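User: Predict the structure for this protein chain, please.
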Amino acid sequence: MKKLDDAKIIEKYDTKNYCHKIIHMPQNIFWGYEKCKVILSENFEVKKYERVVIFSNENDIFAAKLIEEAYNKIAKISVFTPENRVYLDRNDLVILLDYSLIDEYSRKIYNLFAKVNCDFAVISKEELEINSNGMQIVLNKMDEDLTLPYTFTALIKVLETYKIIPSQAEEIKSVIASLIARAGALAEHVDTDSNFGKISAENFENKIPFFVAENRDLENLAIIWQKLFTKRVKTLAFNGLNKNILSEEILPVILEKFDNLLPVFIKRFSEKAENRKYTDELLDIISKSEKNYLEFYVEGDSIITEYFSLIYLAEITSSYVAILNEKDPSK
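Assistant: Here is the predicted structure, written as structure tokens:
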């Protein structure tokens, strides 16, 4: 019996049942979109806004980055962390995305809203008093490492409420259907021979991964994979964009320094030739060094379904690798 097929081993190291909770991501996206608690200020009104400014805690920033990537052709959306110095205007719609809302910088941003007198929304697990035109989405208390489905759908709700984007109900259905189609090949009760998540995890065992985005708009996925492996597996991991890696000659140096480096390419089946060219050059370097590598392809007909197809895989695979390394993915 393979290690990840032993329920007792998974139970021993996965103390918060992450593997099971991650598989329920499609359900959590549905509940986040349909059932989130929305609170509007007494005299709430929708205006025309020149831009949307999202301040996000580092733990929640990938939801904000995904929204920025998906809707930047519809609206001017900028994402910052609370540490950034940003000039705010009364014509801005400002969103504070901070599930915990306990950081001093986040509270400073919240206090700034009132001074600037701009319209704002707050997304957190904590209900706050709103004295001007704004809204809140109050999220249920949950494990703070698994909030992406809820923070993502909460941002969608805010943008819909302020008429920044049209209803995304069909897009949400598409994302959910896409993830449900993958669940059977990732679930912990499915044996390794038929489980793409467990097979992927075995390829990562005792390796230092280098996640390489083939195209700029997939770069955030490389960052997500790298962050999850650093956090869950507690291993050294790198990320980068193939063009930058080539121009800065990063990969040859790292290949020489780390015998157990594993390049991992994040790609599209229909990628433009100009982007494939850089990947082919990197693969040529890798082949000369006689290193193995992996390729993961996004799937879907929109940037959101593409992102979630590999976020889902990254979440479960990093948890499986942690268990293989006899570590708790939740710690």
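Strands lie at 37-40, 51-56, 77-80, 92-97, 119-124, 134-138, 208-213, 238-241, 261-267, 294-297.
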